[in-house]
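User: Before I run my own analysis I want an independent prediction to cross-check against. Here's the chain; please return only the structure tokens and, at the end, one sentence I can use as a sanity check.
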Amino acid sequence: MALMKIAGYGFVLLLVGLAACTGIGPATSLFKPSSPHEQYSQSLKDAKLDRTALGTDWLRAGERALGDSLTITVPYRESGYFSASKPLATGYKLKGERGDRFLIKVETVGTQDAQVFIDVFSLDEQGKTSLVTASKADTNVLNWEPRRNQNYLIRVQPELLRSGQYTISITREPALSFPVQGKDSRQISSYFGVPRDGGRRKHEGIDIFAPKGTPALASANGIVSGVGLNRLGGNVAFVNDAERRIRIYYAHLDSWHVKDGQRVAVGDTIGFVGNTGNARTTAPHLHYGIYTYDEGATNPLPFIRLGRGPAKQPMLATSRLGDSVRVIDARTAIRTGPSSEARSLQTLPKGTVLTIAGGTDFWLRVVTPTGATGYVANKAMESIRRPLRQVALATQKPLLDNADPTAAPVSLLAAGSQLAVLGVFGAFELVRQANGTTGWVSAQ
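Assistant: Structure tokens:
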């Protein structure tokens, strides 16, 4: 039987009744939480549900996801399972650049609608997290643009007392529209930071080659400024994007189509591609630069490069979500990400039992009996339905609900009990009785 699918329904129903009586709703304290997740957490505390086992587990799961983050490469998607009796939160770590636009979407399937909290945190070099943005309370979708080049963590956590399956997808697109009509990032040449004038300066933009007279378009909504001439850029203009706190620079224009103070929308014509200024001896092109309000010139490529399209990872069969599996090979690595290149967290011996919390058809996101999480190759695992061997207990032993000496006993097994060994974890064996009951016993 799948370990994660075993639910303590009596206690769940009791907690549902308690929640209904106390009325989980907006926090009533003077402190105003900054995200729906924090508001919900405060509601649990106001309703005294943080003193219950499930409430405590939910809060701890949210905190743990910030430290036990898994690393992914975008675009990415995977399926997962959350149980009403075992609170779940998952953290996905990725690299974000200024100019990226990420779309995070969580779709759920269950008997009841489930609110899923999506929170994005920045990660500093010491692993400290700071909340950056969060999905709204009435949606399981989040559009987000990083403001710095660094690592970020996306935490996904469903509300308490909900069971169901979910699919998360994370895709990346450019934050700005491409600035040359009929072209895309494949026409970019001479990238940001390359030496100029014998190394005396660096290129503070990118060059997009196109026939003379091709419209140069507004990449963002904004206000035009700086229309004029300069020695290097020839005919130039800026578009000020106050929302993103950037100035977009257009240079080498053959002519202008705007004036200072004019408000433009995405796709409006700023001018026409040319080779004015110091580009007189080169083919017509648009020099395109971006200057931030706080840090000056920044690489414009992430703002306009082609996205990688939708995530295409093959989905894991939903029937396997929540099931338990065991290691086939002598030793198998559990990794931080769904790739053989990802860092190994630990090596597991043959027969080790893991629970499928999610993943793809190639890589399973698993949870160990101690709560550690990571990815293992699907091909390295097998179902626990077929026993490894049959044993008879030499002495009586407690049947435990987890592979832990402090775990709660389910029952007391008499000496001579016939058991099917389904797998191992550390000094414990997962066994099944003749009546189908499963649990853990000490292997000693």
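Sanity check: The radius of gyration is 28 Å.
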